[in-house]
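Field reference: sequence -> structure
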Amino acid sequence: MADMKVVLVYFSATDITHTYAKIIRERLADLGCIVQAFNVTAHTSRQNPLAFESFDGVIFGFPVFVDFAPAVINEWLPTLDGREKKSALFFTYGGRTTGYAHFHTKLLLEQAGFHVLFSAEFLGRHSFNVGGWRAIPERPNAQDVAVAQQYAALAIQRFSQNEPAVLRLQKPFGYNQVIASLANRHETTERQWWNPLRITDECSMCRSCETECPAQAFDSDSGLSNPGTCIGCMRCVYICPDKVLKVNDMKAAYDTFLSNWHLTEEMMNAKRSRIISESWQAAS
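Structure field:
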């Protein structure tokens, strides 16, 4: 469809989701689409309303943090006005699972007025690799890129249909219990093992750690993140130009992660990116 206008909205703390958004955006442009992208990672980027009236379709791309899209995104999506727009989802994850992300985010978007037509999940290095993990450090690979390009072509096809079928997902096992536990959870004020902090006074005080923080959790003056609001996305550590922000050595936590989820590095590397365009049972 010539001159189709697509808007791509994404959150990317350590640039994996940005990488896929770039692949999708470039493929859409190659196929003749007009594409506008909004990076909604920083807190300030989500403070102004987005207008979707002039677009033929909306693509949302988010990482998976412990089975869900980032909490700040799940809080933000209900504020959008979907205006019955056709939309698609994609998620990036570091080798374990996308968990409840497809089902929960689709539900939030539908409640905001979007028609979700299909979704996808793409592999990429884990955010905690900045703290010593070794989770699929070489992804995305050629297969991942090819699927992302196929995803872009499918977006054009589905967005151009007058009455495309919407994505149907069965409620994942245990979803209601997990949602109830999240609603009743009290945030801790004790420092978590993954909370970033500044380890030296040799800092140029560019304040990117504070201004780019998705959750307004980092204080550049004190050099500390707020354990009650930090979402562990590693954005501040990843973008620090002086490399003075660190987390505790996370290597032991990586071994525990593999053991608790009965995973090996070989198992994670064997996973493949995929498009989800039909009725599908989400993983629990």
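Note: The first strand starts at residue 5 and ends at 10.
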